[in-house]
Design brief:
The protein is mainly β and about 230 residues long. Helix content is about 0%, strand content about 30%. Strands 8-10-12-15-16 form a five-stranded mixed β-sheet. It has a four-stranded mixed β-sheet with strand order 9-11-13-14, with no helix packed on it. The N and C termini lie far apart (about 90 Å).
Amino acid sequence: MAKFGWAYIDCTDQGSSGSGSAGPNGSLQFVTESGGQTTGSNHLIYYTGSTGAYGYLPNTVVLSGSLIVTGTVSASTFHIKDITTIDATGSTYFGDSIDDTHRRKGSLIVSGASNYVLSASAITERVWVRGFGGKYASVGGATYNVVADDYIIGCSSSANQTLYLPSASAVGKGALLIIKDEYNNRSAAAVYISGSNPVGGFSVEDKAFYQLNGTMPAVNLYSDGTNWFVF
């Protein structure tokens, strides 16, 4: 059987030390004097089973003013209406899936030790990169299926080599590729850049395939979203 202790409650008027409370309905109480007198404020209200005068959902605490937290804030959802400044140190991580999209309006600047590393201007619609590098694929076999994130492809075999491009519609408009013949003496062999097999349905420079000729040639390609072209 449960046992209960005693509690002393002083129900005298608010003028007595340590007694009474004040404030509007739903206000959270706080001590206003050393004697223990408590009060509430319209600036800190807890709405319980009703939406309240301003349409707040039940079980909602509303603070009208600033909040300073010296510890950690944990929440299932953050809904931020306005951000003036974000000041953080250390690494930050956004998203938990490869299909997450993070959008921003305005320009972006990434700084290095002494200068800009990357800048993207919403005004000029230009991107400036201090040092640029793309994914490199070394191809030594007779065939190679180019994937969407390939950028520089080096062909090193002495025999015929065929590169099968991804669909231009799959990689999208503006995709770029650099293909280089890295072998210095192919003789009668060549590098073929193909859009006809195994993917098919698109062309390279208005043909089923494009052939690299000469001594250690290179070619740049771009996609218009339908076909591939040399530039």
